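thread: overnight batch results

M.L. [08:02]
morning all. the overnight job finished for the chain we discussed friday. pasting input first so we're all looking at the same thing
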Amino acid sequence: MGHRLIQDLSFPFDLSLPPKMRLLQFCFCSLLVLHSGLSFAQITQIHYSVVDDECHRSQASIVVDSVSGGTKPYSYFLADTIERADGSFDSLSAGIYKLAVSDTNGNSLTEFVEISSTDTSVVQLRISPITGLDDGFIRVGEILSGPDISFVVVNGVDTFEAEYRVPVEDEYLLDIHSVNDCVSSERASVKMASPRTENFFSPNNDGINDTWTLSNLDLYPFNRVIVYNRFGQRVFGTKQYQNDWDGKQFGQDLAEGTYYFVFFYDFNDDAKGLERGFVEIIR
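M.L. [08:03]
and the structure it wrote out:
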């Protein structure tokens, strides 16, 4: 029996050696035989699942559910380089992946896992493009969505629609949330346009250009405007201008001609912005 095991180990028993050497040789071979009898259990099967990503149609996950055989703890690898302690590999696109499991004794087993095109019924959220414009709006060009989409702009704004005006110029993070907790995020910078003024108006009560108009006034509710004639005399002034000056001073029509204005504006009543220009009254 012992001789057969020694032969199986390809370790020939040399009878030409002196007795003491033969004894040492026999003891060493016995240790090899004993060690060979302690073979460790091999890993026999990897039980895994391919799970579609609920929030992205183009992605899926490989999850190792259990391992048969081997000795815990196990290590999990994908494509020989990506290691996960929990055996879960996510954000994978369609393709064939090499999944390997090794145990504490160095035994390992490899499986090749195929991810086909993922389920098209799951929710996909995408915002493309998102644009911050100089009129204080954020606009969303395309939304691919699932059920019950809600919108959140992170910078203190509670709700978001396809077009939303934000309170101050800043970089905004837009989150779209679905009912199953999928989230898609994009950033947009919003700049506020300075007020734009018409260089003329014709207050003749014909319903056309009867008042002096400044664009983007609703961006600057805290404003102040002063208008002077060519002699530097003040002919009109007000706070929180509402595009309602009809070319009168103290209820009397001002003469045709060129007038000069100063427009102070800001997001609050400190009025840090300043615009200067002229406006023609045509009658």
